[in-house]
Amino acid sequence: MGRRVVVWRVTERCNLACGFCAFDRTLPFARREVALDDVVRFVDLLGELRSRDGREVLISWLGGEPFLWPHLELATIRARNAGLQTSLTTNGLALASPRWLEFARTQLDELTISVDGTADLHDALRGQPGHHERLLEATRALRGGRAAIKVNTVLMADNIEAFEEMALELADAGVGALTFNALGGRDRPEFHAQHKLSLEQIDAFAEALPRVRARAAERGMAILGGSAYLARLRASALGEKLAVDDCGPGEHFCFIDAEGFVAPCSFSTDGVGVPLDTLRSVDDLLVLPKTFARRRDQARLAVCRDCPSTQVFSKFTREVPA
Description:
- The chain is α/β, with parallel strands linked by helices and 322 residues long.
- Helix content is 40%, strand content 15%.
- It has a 10-stranded mixed sheet with strand order 7-6-5-4-3-2-1-8-9-10.
- β5, α6 and β6 form a beta-alpha-beta unit.
- It is globular and about 50 Å long.
């Protein structure tokens, strides 16, 4: 059945001010963080679940910026001791520190770095001159470590035409896999209005992708994303809704927010999410998919009528170049 993936937003703090992100450090809202005791209890429970049915579990720390979470090291070690695989997604600023570079090399199974274009554009979007080059340096330094190095990029009108250049640069730096999202308008609609992708850009991107994928593969990097994912991007540009009646909620993936609600995805915590502290046993976890399905059917979430959850649309599918 494959491994279970648990993505946990452990902090809403960030140290960058990216115009497309809901956690931009300049935005005025109270930032929540997850308590270590809650993490310890739940990762131990996930370890028991893994022992019972033999399925691997990947726990992935998300932010904000996870390296700002004060419990990162202790929580990661506890998860590894419970037999879980560990991962996080980062803006990469912390990787300038030898301490955190070593942490990534030795304590993580996967590390996803956010890179949003070639050097000039990435540095401008992040407000950090020289940041792009420092990320490439960190990626080279992580070669041969425990962690599989991945990059996720947000595609927008500004960077999509330079995707091939960026991808090959990342491949040469030692990145093993590249994923992409289309810029969305839910978090920062004012930014989206000025930088959103056109249908023509998406179609040109899809036409070029097999060639780019093959060139990246020659350098040892996979560009992930299946045909259903490209169809999702195209539908968004056209304003077409793609409903998902049954995503198999909780069977392979779940999300935990910083407030302590567990849900099938980050868009369904309201209405479908269950409080983390109600999950006290392995049996509670095993029935979670049925619990989610029942609550989804009762709530009839509007978001499911135009599902934005990228993992549902084959974002992580590994397609072999022709």
